[in-house]
Amino acid sequence: MAAIQFSEEKLNKVKEIVARYPEGKQKSALIPVLHLAQEEFDGWLSSDTMDYVASLLQLKPIEVYEVATFYSMFNLKPVGKFLFEVCQTGPCMVSGSDQIIDYIKNKLGIGVGETTPDGMFTLKTVECLGACGYAPMMQLGKHFREHLTPARVDEIIAECRAKAN
Amino acid sequence: MGRKLLLEKAHIEGIRYYDTYRSNGGYAAAEKALKSMGPEGVLEEVKKSGLRGRGGAGFPTGMKWSFIAKPEGVPRYLVCNADESEPGTFKDRYLMEFIPHLLIEGLLISSFTLGANAAYIYIRGEYAWIPDILEQAIAEAKNKGWLGKNILGTGFDLEIYVQRGAGAYICGEETALLESLEGKRGNPRIKPPFPAVKGLWGCPTVVNNVETLAAVVPIVNIGGDEYIKYGIGKSTGTKLISACGNINKPGVYEIEMNISVEEFIYSDEYCGGIKNGKRLKACIPGGSSVPVLPANLLLKTAKGETRMMTYESLNDGGFATGSMLGSGGFIVMDEDQCIVRNTLTFARFYHHESCGQCSPCREGTGWMKKVLHNIEYGKGKMSDIDLLWDIQRKIEGNTICPLGDAAAWPVAAAIRHFRDEFEWHVKNPDEALTRNFGLAHYADPIPVPEPAATV
Questions:
Q1: How far apart are CA B172 and CA B165, in angstroms?
Q2: Which helix (H) or strand (E) holds B443?
Q3: Interchain CB contact of B278 with A (< 8 Å)
Q4: What is the pLDDT of residue B225?
Q5: Which end of chain B lies in a sparser environment, N or C, as judged by fewer CB atoms within 10 Å?
Q6: Which of residues 42-81 of B touch A (CB under 8 A)?
Q7: Of the candidates B125, B182, B243, which has its C-beta nearest A27's C-beta?
Q8: Domain with CATH 3.40.50.11540 in chain B
Q9: Which residues form the signal peptide (chain A) (predicted)?
């Protein structure tokens, strides 16, 4: 595996983020930089990645670990190329999210928290994402997919497969 | 048609961008505030307006602002709470997505009033596409001289930054938010000291919700005296309500706080009635934390009065027979919904989101989840219902931050109003897995006690 290292462009982005805070408060950049690192390094944070972020921001590695383990958006294990994060909280539940989760499980042949053998899809259930009026829904990358139905799920899966090819 | 103050222009094509926003009267309030009113003048109007925090707590904004400490040589900060994570709530998202300059203008006026030269918008990490929209709006505003150095020649400087969270409901609590903004775990701080004295990086800080800051714009435009004409009593102005669940027209609505709950649910202007012609069973009117009410207590108070969409009316009867307006996350459940299952999803939510600092919350939310799971899946005992009651009592009031209360209240209210449904699950474990208790008696009129004769 190649050494963990941001591109010049990303390093400039880190500088730009650090400049948002007063002198000496670069720790505030930690969460934004972890997002950047997760996007850059395969969608998850390995301990090497976290150590790299620590050195970039002049923090102790433990300061990074304790933050990375607190927030649910940081993946501490490898995930598939496409991560389906399906909401299961009350408002989505009353609108049929249980059935959508079951449908995805059957369709992909995996359980919650699992990845398909080809490394393509990971299914996660998440708690309220703030799309209650457009339920059931899931997060896929940067965007929300709302008003889910089995047919809509089929389309999304096909779309992902097409994108991967 | 109800009058609107925030979303009146949200549907104008291109309102997301500066030129359209500006040509439709945008930044007129900022100009008025900076050039002619001054910080004291704005504070006075906000106090007069009776504006209350729109994030859920409903604390008077003018009073919150007046608490900010002003020690010599110490910077002050304004932080916009865009962490919107309360189940049922998606109003701030709408506002930021469709009319971002309203928030930027509100931040500008509010920072000017507080004497803050830097403001941070802390937005929940999952709204991953919205920072781009906000940053574009900020860049446009800066380009036109509304941000940066010496704004409008007044000598006032301001920079606005957007910071993404990373998935933690607790960061909607203001001190947890500040911890997160400092690059730490979102563990709430013990208060006092309050953020107004020691907030971000130990400096005086005000944390306000997105909608609260946006509401400052119309208040400056029309004046506090005019603003209080929208609404009733201490529920002044308009409120964004995000309506979801089993209704015909889910979405974000701006209401004047002078309409009834019944009108909100059934009129075509708002929710358009219950979906599929079903009957209303229950509703959580202000986000998952507030007490769930059965249909019969939702539309009328225990005294038989019409329940209104105001802070006071929704709270009428306290927690015994009332609820709260909260964040405006309005969750409607039809006759097919199971209260036990819904309560279970909330208990699971709060268990997942507890930061783990305080034992009653960390442990109690987990116990509630397990007990509710047993009842829902036909493995419950009658004594479990009392056990649940006991656990929630021991969480409420015994934690550093209000997440403990927020976790306890939905469970308490579900048992208080829907005990029959819990008992039915225990007595009919097999049926509980295959069908629901249904509407039962939850929409039946409640006998209103005759008022005592006055002498």
A1: 10
A2: none
A3: no
A4: 97
A5: C
A6: 75
A7: B182
A8: 18-227
A9: none
**B289 near B323, Cβ under 8 Å?**
no
Q: What is the pLDDT of residue A139?
A: 98
> Over 60: is that where the pLDDT of B167 sits?
yes
> What's the average model confidence in pLDDT over B283-307?
96
CB nearest to B184's CB, from A20, A67, A139 = A67
Coil/strand/helix, residue B159: strand
- CATH superfamily, domain B18-227, is NADH-ubiquinone oxidoreductase 51kDa subunit (3.40.50.11540)
Q: Do B331 and A127 touch (CB under 8 A)?
A: no
**How many residues in total does chain A contain?**
165
Question: Are A128 and B85 within 8 A, CB to CB?
Answer: yes
pLDDT value, residue B379:
95
CA gap A132, A146 in Å, rounded: 9
DSSP string, A43-87: TS--HHHHHHHHHHTT--HHHHHHHHTTSTTS-SS---SEEEEEE
Q: Is A160 annotated as a binding residue?
A: no
**β-bridge partners, B161:** B120
Domain with CATH 1.20.1440.230 in chain B: 339-434
Whole-number pLDDT of residue B434: 85
Is A132 part of any known ligand binding site? Answer: yes
